[in-house]
Design a protein that fits this description.
With 341 residues, the chain is of the alpha/beta class. It has three domains: 135 residues, Rossmann fold (3-Layer(aba) Sandwich), CATH 3.40.50; 62 residues, no CATH class; 125 residues, Zinc Finger, Delta Prime, domain 3 (Up-down Bundle), CATH 1.20.272.10. It contains 16 helices and five strands. The chain has a five-stranded parallel beta sheet with strand order 2-3-4-1-5, sandwiched between helices. Helix 5 links the parallel strand 3 and strand 4. Helix 11 packs across helix 16 and helix 12 packs antiparallel against helix 16. The radius of gyration is 27 Å and the shape is elongated.
């Protein structure tokens, strides 16, 4: 039977031991692994591996020795409690073996958990679970976490006093980070706030968020926008050593200056414009953008965007033979000096 995303939240939190098995599949291995981890933890408890109540079998090993699944279903260990057989890296080549295991399952046997990558609707493995009356099939898509998913993560980490503005910031963060990185960030925030019952602040979220691999990229944008000409050269040298592409720098700069222009050109003023940015910004970054937009003004920001558009067209031109990063560095210096006028 198919398990809908909404129903899956309750099932993964409280697995039904009367079901023969569960198939979790999806293109993103990390998202599948997180669902698998949640299911096994709630089904078996934290000590299942140490108590030998969890048997792991790879799809390749099961294909070589089909009896591994049946043996795992029926075997009894020394420790009481629910048992499970986890088949990883499964594919259609073992669909018949898995199907036979589901049909042979009886109450009291170990639960069958199968994890696989992306499966087509015509997949034999997928159909064996979807058509079985006593098994579930869960498809994991690359959608951003829902509000309920984020609130569950916060609850697991022991975080409860979350203002709405901070929850919106965490929602944006969840869309930017990989699922595993986001979960680690929430856990880190939970440790940071341990024993502290005051409301979570945007500054605390930013302190615990992972350092972006685009830290130098953001540094160069801030130098340009703040008119810090002397710092552009050293940062460009670091970016050059990292292999950053010139076009990527121009795209990032254009995105930043478009945000500044949106804020500065708002009819209601800079205070209104910063509130209309999407995605919204919070904390120190919000103050920074608001200050830069005020310093530049809509007119000069429009001219800055023209400069960036020109350099972008030049870089993409077939007749462009000059060193790309040097052209960008020169344009950034020009912009920084322009912003100081």
């Amino acid at each position: 039977m198919k398990l809908s995303p909404r129903d899956s939240q309750g099932y993964l939190k409280s697995p039904d031991t009367s079901r023969a098995g569960l198939l979790i599949f999806g293109a993103d291995a990390m998202r599948v692994a997180l669902k698998r981890e949640e299911f096994l933890k709630n089904l078996l408890g934290p000590d299942a591996a140490a108590e030998m109540r969890l048997i792991r079998v790879s799809g390749a090993d099961l294909r070589k020795d089909p009896a591994l699944l049946q043996d795992g279903l029926k075997s009894q260990g020394f420790f009481p409690g629910q048992r499970a057989v986890f088949v990883e890296d499964a594919s259609d080549t073992i669909a018949d073996i898995i199907g036979a295991g589901l049909n042979a399952w009886n109450v009291g046997d170990a639960t069958i958990l199968v994890c696989a990558g992306q499966l087509k609707p015509t997949s034999k493995l997928r159909k064996s679970f979807e058509s079985h009356p006593n098994a579930y099939c869960l498809a994991v898509y690359d959608d951003p976490p829902t509000r309920q998913d984020i609130e569950n993560e916060l609850k697991t980490a022991g975080l409860s006093n979350i203002p709405s503005t901070v929850l919106a910031l965490l929602t944006d963060l969840a869309r930017e980070l990989e699922p595993g990185d986001f979960r680690q960030t929430i856990q880190k925030i939970g440790l940071y706030k341990h024993g502290d019952h005051s409301p979570l602040t945007p500054n605390e979220v930013e302190l615990c968020a992972p350092t972006s691999n685009e830290a130098d990229l953001d540094d160069i944008l801030q130098c340009v926008a703040n008119g810090q000409v002397d710092k552009i050269g050293p940062i460009m040298k670091r970016l050059r050593s990292q292999g950053v592409q010139a076009v990527a720098l121009v795209i990032a700069a254009s995105r930043h200056f478009k945000s500044l222009y949106t804020v500065a050109a708002d009819p209601g003023g800079v205070g209104s414009g910063i509130g209309n940015l999407r995605p919204p910004v919070f904390g120190p970054r919000r103050d920074l953008i608001q200050r830069q937009a005020s310093q530049w003004g809509a007119h000069r920001l429009g001219e800055a965007l023209t400069i960036l558009t020109d350099i972008d067209l030049q870089l993409r031109s077939a007749n462009q033979h000059a060193p790309s990063l040097e052209l960008v560095e020169r344009a950034f210096i020009r912009l920084a000096m322009f912003g100081r006028k």
